[in-house]
Amino acid sequence: MNNTTLVIMAAGIGARFGEGIKQLQRIGPNDEIIMDYSIHDAILAGFNKVVFIIRKDIERDFKKIIGDRTQKICNQLNVKVEYVFQSIMDVPEGVVVPEGRTKPWGTGQAVLSAKDCIHEPFAVINADDYYGNHAFQAVHDYLIEYGEQNSYNLCMAGYHLKNTLSDYGSVTRGICHVDEDSYLISIDEVREIQRKEQIITSSKGVLEKDTCVSMNMFGMGKDFLQLLDQGFCDFFKNNDEDDLKKEFLIPVFIDKLLHERKISVKVLETKDQWFGITYQEDVDGVKRSFENLYQQGIYQNDLFNDLQ
Questions:
Q1: Which residues constitute the domain of residue 115?
Q2: How many CB atoms lie within 10 A of CB 8?
């Protein structure tokens, strides 16, 4: 069997679980949350291990609300589940965590916290984004074909901008510049993106509706973690130690490596509709979107029944 791991970055979920936590909004017919669909789609695609990245202070609540249920389902499907913890104190030797720092160091550090339990090609996703089953299948198949051969040949699910917007306010997206062979040239973080009638505007002007964007879904070989580890060390060398908000972010690091010609990133186009809850007003729309997916037969009322 070809082993592949799904890494879910969930350390950003708040310590107090309940109403108001966007990652825990119940949007399915049986109170499913968005993470349930990611795990379902990943297993359907062929991933056979799930790694949750959380904070130690939310472990008990996370397992009670999400993890224990997921563990039971995965046990039935012979899918391994592991937990790792992202900590603000987990920094390279010699680095002093500045007084007043209250949050971990970003998505790059989150993935590094899982390095001791990743021994195979892996995909990284956000806990609170719905990516669609086509995206998981495309990334998984790419990892099976290339993940063991070349850890520096990454892949990324590329979404159409029009499929990633909120109707209730602006968003920030990683705008991707892609060559004719579908390889990523660069990622440019663009803010204040919103739809105004038939036009999509942003802090950098009007954007085409089919512009390729990254939603933080990447596929990587296990040896890529060595580059990430070195990049985290360099991050502290090149930044002001007193900056309390700086973060080591995966898209920013990947963009840096692309410009240094150290990696390649194949963009796997998907026309899946991305769903996410940026604003409270998004919740009802996301629920309706999932209702449509059920009506189309993409999901069954018993979500994991088709995997048995």
A1: 5-307
A2: 24
CB < 8 Å & 24+ apart, contacts of 133-137: 133/41, 133/44, 133/45, 133/272, 133/298, 134/270, 134/271, 134/272, 135/41, 135/159, 135/217, 135/268, 135/270, 135/272, 136/38, 136/41, 136/42, 136/44, 136/45, 136/47, 137/41, 137/44, 137/45, 137/46
CATH number for 164: 3.90.550.10
Phi, psi of 192 (to 5 degrees): 60, 40
Task: Please report, rounded to a whole number, the percentage of residues in the chain having pLDDT higher than 90.
Answer: 71
Contacts of 213 (CB under 8 A, 6+ apart): 158, 159, 160, 161, 164, 173, 174, 175, 176
Domain count, the chain: 1
Structure pTM?
0.93
Rounded Cα distance between 74 and 68, Å, is 10
With the C-alpha atoms ordered 277, 283, 289, 292, is the resulting torsion angle positive or negative?
A: positive
Please enumerate in sequence order all residues whose Cβ is within 8 A of that of 66, keeping only pairs 6 or more positions apart, or say none: 24, 33, 35
The pLDDT mean for the chain works out to 91
